[in-house]
Design goal:
With 78 residues, the protein is mainly α. It is built from 3 helices and no strands. It is 67% helix and 0% strand.
Length: 78
């Protein structure tokens, strides 16, 4: 996978926060990469939660799930 570089300007608050995330063993680059990954996961979980709520509240989807459940024995195996 190719790598790319990215430059940005940050305010004093962001600079302080980045400094607090940077240690002797964690570079500024590693801190920024981790923050991006963490934010990506947060948004993905939020999207999945929203989509699952929409499905849970969708009468047509719930009816389809119930029909499949009944077709597979209605939970008798448990």
């Amino acid at each position: 996978m190719a790598t790319a570089s990215f430059s940005f300007r940050f305010d004093e608050e962001t600079q302080r926060e980045l400094a607090s995330l940077t240690t002797e063993t964690t570079s500024r680059n590693a801190a920024v990469v981790e923050a991006i990954h963490e934010n990506y996961r947060k948004h993905a979980y939020e999207r999945m939660r929203r989509e699952s709520t929409e499905l849970h509240n969708d009468p047509a989807d719930r009816a389809e799930v119930e029909a499949a459940r009944l077709a597979l024995g209605g939970g008798d195996a448990w």
